[in-house]
Amino acid sequence: MEAIGRGALRLRGSELRWGTRTYVMGIVNVTSDSFSGDGRPRTGDAVAHAIAQFERASDLLDIGAESTRPGHTAIDDATEIVRLVPVVRGVRARLPNAIISADTYKPAVFRAAHEAGADVLNSVWGIPDALLAAAVECGVPVVITHNKEEARYDGNAIDEVLTFLEGAAHRAVRAGIPAERVILDPGIGFGKTADQNIAVLRGLPRLTALGFPTLLGTSRKSTVGRLTGRGPQERTYGTAATLALGIAAGIDMVRVHDVAEARDVVRVSDALVRDWRPDGWTA
Prior knowledge:
This protein is an alpha/beta fold and about 280 residues long. The protein contains 10 helices and 10 strands. The strands form 2 sheets. The chain has an 8-stranded parallel β-sheet with strand order 8-7-6-5-4-3-10-9. Helix 3 links the parallel strand 5 and strand 6. The two termini are about 20 Å apart.
């Protein structure tokens, strides 16, 4: 049954009904400096990885061409477009029904990615006016992420995160984007210390209570590494713990590097939390 008032994301012939199960967004990094060591700067390699992520049962593919790790080197619009657009175009040609998210915070880059076949805007820097205007112009859903330059907060980080995201979401709705197409990401690992990330994770029920669709991006993050003592490519189990607890809090979508493993976490968690069952299930 569709959750009352939550609606659905309808794209490319698919319907992602909020509240019925958790959706998996597979990461595709078209960079040479990804923090997790999974960057694929060559177009052919990135397209092949996107196809593999889709075949592992990603509900969406998130393609980004600029690293957002702490201390990364920013690139200009033209460089990002040269990296991103050929991959989006190549994936669209091979996977005409896949839902593609473009991971960028630059209006010109998103417009170019949308023209090449991207369906969703995923911004790690909130939704500034110019970027919001681009999203409205292109008629796309948006993922709005909390972020800030320095990890300084007055009080508990979750309070500021919620205030920022709720305000940004209502701005997007007033601009003409339906509420069911405004997805909120608390920004784990962005402008937060490890303890602040933990505080935000503990406060996820307050985020989902805002009523908008939500996304959680904890995959291989440094806080998981600090807690487990493991390197980026060895953080699958630590990530899994955050996904399961996020789903218990009502999170709608998870953004992950390890799609097959995350899919198992999602299916078991959804069975317990949302009473979901796979097709063909018999009592």
